[in-house]
Design goal:
There is one protein chain. This protein is mainly alpha-helical. It has a domain of about 45 residues. The protein is about 45% helix and about 5% strand. The protein contains 1 helix and 2 strands, in the order αββ. A two-stranded antiparallel ribbon has the order 1-2. A hairpin with a 6-residue loop joins β1 and β2. The radius of gyration is 23 Å and the shape is elongated. The chain starts with 5 loop residues before the first helix and ends in a 15-residue tail after the last strand. The structure holds zinc ion. Zinc ion (ZN) binds next to loops.
Length: about 70
């Protein structure tokens, strides 16, 4: 087995990685701007009037989905 050539290509990979993370951050922040926090608040079930926490997509009591 000879020397491992991948070590030389690592700095290049990191550069690519970095530019991608910058682009990814721009995409993420533009998504955050256009999509205001989707329903991160408590809600009341329309089926049984049970208050549900923001984390629930369904009523924990009767299974009714979040309106
Ligand atoms: Zn319910």
């Amino acid at each position: 087995m000879g020397e491992l050539p991948w070590q030389e290509s690592q700095p290049e990979l990191w550069l690519v990685d970095e530019s991608w993370s910058v682009r990814a951050n721009k995409v993420v922040s533009s998504l955050m701007d256009s999509h205001q926090a989707p329903q991160q608040f408590p809600w009341v079930c329309s089926g049984c009037n049970e208050p549900n926490g923001a984390a629930f997509d369904m009523c924990w009591q009767c299974g009714e989905s979040r309106p």
